[in-house]
Fold these 4 entries.
Entry 1:
Amino acid sequence: MSTVKKILKRILPSAAIELRFDLVISSRFFRNNFIRKTIDSFGENRPSPRVGSQIRVAALWEVDGTFLWAQRADSEQAFFFIHLPRGIFDPIWRKLLKSYNQASNLGESSLENYYNPRFSGDREQFRKYCKEALTTIKQLYDIDVFLLPKLNDDWITDLIKSLRELRYPVIVNDRESISTAKRVEIYSPILKRILDFQADRLLVSSQHHKDFFVHGGYPEEGIEVIGKINYDYWFSPQHWRDGKDIHPSLDPAKKKIMFFSFGSKSYMNFFYPGETRNWDYLSQDFHDLLLWVIEEYGDKVQVLYKSGAKPHRDYFPGFDEFAKKLDKLQHRESFVSLGVSCSSLDLIRNSDLIMGFQTSGLIEAMYTKKPIYAGGWGALFEDIKDTLLPFHVGSSVNFFASPETMKADLKRLIENDFKFELSAQEVSDREKFRSFYFEKNDGKAGQRLLGELRDLAKKERHGTRK
């Protein structure tokens, strides 16, 4: 193949994509066709006309299928959900906000960056597209209420503002349930300064979650605590998956250690101005422990290595070197890398030990009576540990202050066939810890969300919505 042909083969597909999105932005015909095809071809959607007084909800899709839990709670079939793939908005946003995308970082980014005046023109163009797309969605699918999973992500703020300008009913069920003390200290004042919109209703998981937004200037009367709808899982065994139904590489003959990966700036983000240190040293120690487990016990233990919805945030820079060492081990198959397509809740339930650093996954594991190992050490951790999630306080997890003590206890646990029993104090500490971040643990959070959707739709129909 000639050099010219190689170049054309490389650039023509990207040029075609650029042209396609140019047409989606500029042409109503192409835009409507694009939106209809994107929604109708999405696997979770079964478009149909309105049935009786059924409430029709357009829910922005989350990769973990969060809003499926609301659907599952609808035993009376009083609602019809249309799931909106992010592909309707995300590629257009990336095209129009190219300069912002280049400036974004790996962790949670402050809205101050997005609200910088130099992006205002691009954001205005994006909102124009959002309003046109939302109008099409409402008309095509006869939507009563829009449901979104986050209040203060960059692009979603413009989506909410577009909905408000159109006067379309919108509820936000905010997914970011957990804030460290430092996040509240640094980010809440920023929100108070720049947040320039509200949803009809903001739903949160706990008083702790609510306080973050109240400190950020959001009206308290506009926020309702409903619990975490994903955690209706623990009361819904009919939706559980086990073993190879989760992933074909899971070996039923081996015990399983689940490890939540974490990145250089996990739970630090922009909250520590001037701090140049990161967690790479700590992550290296954890990865060395995982290699040791597979080398010594790979014949009877599997390591389930779990990354989240945004794997770049959980990425360990030394992973390539780790993988080279792993490939030299006899039981390489005992390391299983898993992404967001595998439910962390299913994996926790199917594991014999859950390990991690700073992650909500360790709190999720507190719904079980399984051993939970957390650790933190080194100068950086000692300097800021009181501003992080307090796994080092109390007895809700087995916390280790050095890799040596963790390794010794891990050896003991494995060689005792993972025998483990919680004391009454440990059970109590776990319940208190998880309830602080996730209230109303009764399996009815999905029902409460449906109640909020019903109330808002009723107000809109009766003309009493503010």
Entry 2:
Amino acid sequence: MTTSSTYQILQGNDEIALVDALSNLWHADASLSRSDIPLLLRLLWHGSSDVRLETVRVIGLHWRLPVSYRHLAAMLEFAERDQRVKRALSAALSSLIVSGIGDGDKISRIYAKFILKNSIDPELRNQAYVDLLQIWQKVNAAEYHSMRSRDYIEIDKHWLRKFITSDVESVSELSAVNQFGAISARLASASRREIYLCLCELKRSDCIESRFVRDQLIELLTHSDSDIRAGVVELLGLHWKLDEVFFRLIEMLTLRERDTEVCLCLISSIASLVRAGCGKLVDVVAGLVAIASCKNCDPRLRAFANFDVLTLAGLLDSETLAFNSDWRMVSAIPIDESRLQTATATSLRDLLDLR
């Protein structure tokens, strides 16, 4: 909630005081109260472009207020003349759309018309184009920020004209993009519970096409909460079987991860990816054999590493494989150094055969 002094400033018309107060709100961590929102919406139509600029940043980029969407869209399409404010409006509206707020189809048409105008400010053209790419999940976060800093961006005019002629991707695809935006917002949440619930829901769905969301999930592999790391490993490795995470999971298991439960998920996920043809036994055999042979490791880690090495090398019978989820059966399989050496030799033979 804003302080009483800031609240009074927002009610006034002192341009310098308003800009300072809004700048402070832009950097503040506190949330707004209901009584603050009408004051901020009113400032979107202030006579000073500096006041409008800071207001757009506060309500569109910082707090992403759903109620601001209609006002910001109207400003961008009809009212705003200042180029700096227009660039802020473009960034704010795309941020709202990616978060699942607003009409992405309408905003896409507005952006396309702006970008195709010959008289448009070059900086605004670049900003709007990159924001449009973000709305349609055609760039990840790193690419988005990199493209925003460029002086020149090659623009696909054919793609843009489709928005104006309505010959663009179907409404169902756009709805999917908006759904990705909602998922992205949940994964970016500061609430661990919200992230965990989102992961549980994603496990019941097929692998999603959004690169942006997939990159977010990969970043969560380094999250401080072990339950979240385990959930992401299971989702990407066991459920979706993404081959792009194969070597990341191996790196986690052999170099970084210290939590036993996460390591168990890593072992199962890596083995699942090898079975699905996303990796080779030779890539994982050394790490799994080292874990199985390490007498200081957790007994469960040793048992499952031993089980997966022997399974992938084809050294277990079908009856034993049928009980691969039964801890008693897995733990009963003896850790035999000679069989582990045989598994290693098998992986090397496979590699030579491939060559």
Entry 3:
Amino acid sequence: MTTKSKSDLHRKYADALDLCDKHGIERSFAVRIDEVDFCQYPDFSRHFKAYSFPLAVVENKPVFKGDKLWNIAVGFEFTVTDSPLTLLDKNCSWEKPKPKTFILNGDKHILPTRCSLSEYDPHKISSGIFGIQYYFNDKEHYDNTRNAIVNLLDGKGDL
């Protein structure tokens, strides 16, 4: 919904209050003014662009356009836009996820993550293994994991 009038602000505020109530967070977080201050009872006397409303709730904290979150599945940070945030609370975190690891051939490796075109991150290396695409943090991460798997498949290593 595009905000063009004071009544639009009231409707967005009502939706934001419902979102806060649904997630059990303080109603004072339902509106932000000038991207800094929270206000429990806004009078909407400023220009409509001064107000922003939460788009979702992640980890019991409201998420606004411009906030930075981490995609847990892929492990990269992104900036929240106006796009619909349907599964945001399950796929995202305010904190950088700790990398998962596995032991192969006696060495500890960072587990690569599966990726899809919708999760594409140009800062990571993507590679297919057995027809499945995976993200690797960097070339060293890719090389180490690849070499361990090749050694295992060539009979030069063990689990």
Entry 4:
Amino acid sequence: MRNKIIAWLRRFRDVLPIAALLAFMYCVFGSLEVVLTSAKDFSFTFNQALLPLSLVCVAVTLVFSAVMACFRGVGLRIVTGLFTGVALCSYLQNLVLNLDLGMLEGEEIDWTAYGNHGMINLLVWVALLIAILIAAILLKKHWRTVSMCVCGLLLIMQVSALAISAITYGASIGEDLTKRYALDGEDQYTVSTEGNIIMFVVDYCANTYYDETVAAYP
């Protein structure tokens, strides 16, 4: 029994980088990247989101590692191959495969125009997953070293990229919430004797109608 526990702990240690990479990518990096690029649109700061997301990442890492450590031999290589493949595919998806859909302005998006791109993405994912699974089975004992090194390197790259982004957007994420501008209702119905500006907020209006209106009523 003691030997089985020691063997399980060794497998748990070996798969930690793989589990940590996948958990960090989805629990921390993806979420905080949105916060960093749209800091002023959220009611919380980067620092406030970092701790809870990190705790979730740690919990997911431990769960993934515990599950993978339950497998042995070929089964372990297949499972770690799947985890590594999903992590690599996700990294590639975020890096080069995602399309720029432009500004979301309320206009209808013709999703049929992106059908071919979705099929290409699927083929890339399937081909890469199959290739990694084959490598995991053929490399045998060497797969442990390869998977640990690849996932560890990607994890370092992700952490470094997030740190650089945090420094770049430091001014936005370090902003005190109490200093944010907000409408408090004071003087909202007060009108000046001159120089008043009437603003119409049009949430969904095609440029065609706007141009016609401006041309008719300059």
